[in-house]
Amino acid sequence: xxxxxxxxxxxxxxxxxxxxxxxxxxxxxxxxxxxxxxxxxxxxxxxxxxxxxxxxxxxxxxxxxxxxxxxxxxxxxxxxxxxxxxxxxxxxxxxxxxxxxxxxxxxxxxxxxxxxxxxxxxxxxxxxxxxxxxxxxxxxxxxxxxxxxxxxxxxxxxxxxxxxxxxxxxxxxxxxxxxxxxxxxxxxxxxxxxxxxxxxxxxxxxxxxxxxxxxxxxxxxxxxxxxxxxxxxxxxxxxxxxxxxxxxxxxxxxxxxxxxxxxxxxxxxxxxxxxxxxxxxxxxxxxxxxxxxxxxxxxxxxxxxxxxxxxxxxxxxxxxxxxxxxxxxxxxxxxxxxxxxxxxxxxxxxxxxxxxxxxxxxxxxxxxxxxxxxxxxxxxxxxxxxxxxxxxxxxxxxxxxxx
Length: 403
Ligand code: 3PG
Description:
By secondary structure, this protein is an alpha/beta fold. It has helices at 34-48, 73-83, 96-103, 120-123, 127-134, 168-182, 201-208, 219-227, 242-254, 296-306, 328-342, 353-361, 376-382, 388-399; strands at residues 14-18, 25-26, 29-30, 52-56, 88-90, 110-113, 139-142, 164-166, 188-192, 213-216, 258-260, 264-268, 277-281, 290-294, 311-315, 347-350, 370-371.
């Protein structure tokens, strides 16, 4: 229901592409270029079709000021390497320097502008700032699904000023996500992990109405267990969420969604790398121990159930996977899901910051059906929220009288 690049002849046009180049960087070195690689096809396609491509992105959270360490300059070079084509850079995203740089672009050239969040108008979604961004272009392409939950000038406001299109990555993300939760092949399951129920209440509420099986994992599961009166020792849990956890279980029953909780655990007395650990059944956790991972029986239970599903949505690890040996359940279940996916038996769609690192750690990132580049946007989408950057693509064309 929004326009894609299929219907666009961009030759000679100035096309403003909103990418999400907010990549992990350490001491000025890009540590994970996935987002750059995933947006490259849109930029390449437009350039090859003769567009004058102007790339726009935020980076980090400079809060409306120019912060040198948050410049997009180092990213221009990497983007050029990925595209195999030079990418020009100007240290501004609006104003006269940008005008000059854009005027000198030839068909097929690519220009990266500076971090949009150096201007307070970006996050305020100031229409004047959106207009200043729009002024340098004829067409707007949003390819930043992972920033679509932000109603900012470069993701939302500018789409009201120019004929707007969804880029290829945006198309792919929305296609994969809707195939996983809106129109899934059933039975469909979801692995929802993480440390706190309180941060994932809306998400759980939305997901349980849509899936047949919900695996609750990570420290969040401890709260559900404790709510049933099971001793979880010193485990991380939210004592004030017990009533909520019981309500979730009741609601799931009413909606025909089966909730699966861990049946055993890996426990330790302290949470540090290489800490002495042991396995015990849920219900047998000693008072002075804490649950740090799901145990082997839980892994078997989940893996067996995955084999009965057609679709799996995954958000959140099974344990404290950043610290060995508490990564085992996450790795084992990730590998089981990857195997079923590779055999064509399961469609697995995963996303959210932690989940992507967990799947990378398990070595299965490339073996899932689709891994979203989004963190917060993936979570908001799982919550069933409308994402402003996407909604505007659906409606702005009509407002401009273009559809
Ligand atoms: C992300 O990394 O999730 C997006 O780039 C959005 O970043 P933000 O949380 O700073 O808005």
